[in-house]
Amino acid sequence: RIATPIFEKKKFSGIIILNLSTNNLFNSIRNSTAFDHFIIDKNQNYILHPQDKFSFNKYKKIIKDIDDDFPKGFETNNTFVYSLKDIFHNEDDAIFVLKTKKDYEKKLFTQKLNILGIVLVLTFFISLIMAFMVSKIPTRLQNALFRANQKLEISQIVKNYVISATTKVDSTILDISDAFMKSSGYSKKELIGKPMSIIKNKDRDKKIIKQLWKTILKGEVWIGEIKNTKKNGQIYWLEQHIIPKMDKNNKIEKFVSIGIDITAKKELEKLASIDQLTGIYNRRMIEEFLQVEIDIAKRHEYDLSLIMIDIDFFKTVNDNHGHPIGDEVLNQIAKVISNNLRKSDIFGRYGGEEFLIICVETNANDAFTLSEKLRLAVGSHKFDDIGYKTISLGVTNLKIADTLETLVKRADLALYKAKEEGRNKTVIEVT
User: Fold this and answer.
1) Among residues 239, 287, 293, 353, which one is catalytic?
2) Who contacts 183 (Cβ-Cβ below 8 Å, separation ≥6)?
3) In 136-177, which ranges are continuous DSSP H helix?
4) What φ, ψ does residue 111 adopt, rounded to 5°?
């Protein structure tokens, strides 16, 4: 529960109280195959426990000895402790504890521990902040904030912390909050009288902007995410509610936009979807894209092909030159492939030295042609430390009865045949 007082002309007017449900937050924290998660207060009571019955055990009057979960205390190799004092400003002095599960693979543990720890902690911190700021605030709350703006002559809480702006119908800026200035990097003098496009990012999705104007010019509230550019050129994201305000004749007089900075959320989404070594999509993301494209292809009867790629004799690179050189080879091959793909192709690292390419609206023969182009491009690339390297490729196309699993399995079978037939080859598997 979060509360703040409201003052009007230095006179106490009331209190805003937000009650936040943490159920979804706690559930998302628990969804890990690698760690058990605990939040523990200074008296060693559980706020969060992997077994839900022990969460908030102090209030349930359930006695749970902390030594049952941590017989050797927190100073062990498989336990990681993070203070939450900067998040929970109360007397709990809570800590966030990650404890590796017993069945977690040791090899993956040693390779990915640091990244997982950072991502999980960032996920927790940012989720907590976003739960407060972005818990799908209803439009009526935005309208209520606007009415409070008028009644309290832009109270300090709105001015300082809510990214808001008022514009004419042609988007000329009439007024902005201090928070808007801070987020954009512009001063009020530089913004008032200018079009809202002053913060426009050149890579904005034109379809989204077109839908925005179509919605608000009908007098309806638009809610969505917009990519902007600060005065210093830095990119930032806002989740915006744009509210048309009517005059007494029910004509649009102006627009009020109320935004929330979701740049951190966008960065976290990117972190969760990108392979950190190669900078292309990771397995989770490429499989999500593949499922979407399968559904679209079946619905509209489009062609869809899949290319699976494996680096030939990659193990010898790690064995003879070491993992840093192996990582560099993976990174360079990913770049060579990326540079030779079409705009419509979706490219990701499937695992280890395997890559996956989704060829949208492409039949197997055209996918084979692309595969041969990629095979020749990689084969002609000279690596600094190992000379030349080749790849094998398996190609297949979508059948009406296919699932994601059967499609990937058939591409993998084609790849296996390519390696069996001598490697540095492309094989199509269509049956």
Assistant:
1) 353
2) 163, 230, 236, 238, 259, 261
3) 139-151, 156-161
4) -80, -35
Q: Catalytic: 353?
A: yes
Contacts 24+ apart (CB under 8 A), 123-130: 123/28, 123/29, 123/268, 124/29, 124/96, 125/87, 126/264, 126/265, 126/268, 127/25, 127/28, 127/29, 128/25, 128/87, 129/264, 130/262, 130/264, 130/265
Question: Which residue's structure tokens are 């993998």?
Answer: 412
Helix 404-420 × helix 283-300 angle, to 10°: 110
User: Going residue by residue through the chain (431 aa), what tens digit of pLDDT does each one get?
Assistant: 677 888 887 888 888 887 777 776 677 666 666 678 889 999 999 988 888 889 889 888 898 898 888 888 887 777 888 888 777 677 788 888 888 777 665 655 565 666 666 767 777 777 667 666 655 555 555 666 666 555 555 455 566 678 889 999 999 999 988 889 988 999 988 999 999 989 988 888 888 889 989 999 999 999 998 899 999 999 888 988 999 999 988 999 999 998 888 887 777 766 678 888 898 999 989 999 999 999 999 999 999 999 999 999 999 999 999 999 999 999 999 999 999 999 999 999 998 999 999 999 999 999 999 999 999 999 999 998 899 999 999 999 999 999 999 999 999 999 999 999 999 999 998 66
173: left (phi over 0), alpha (psi -120 to 50) or beta: beta
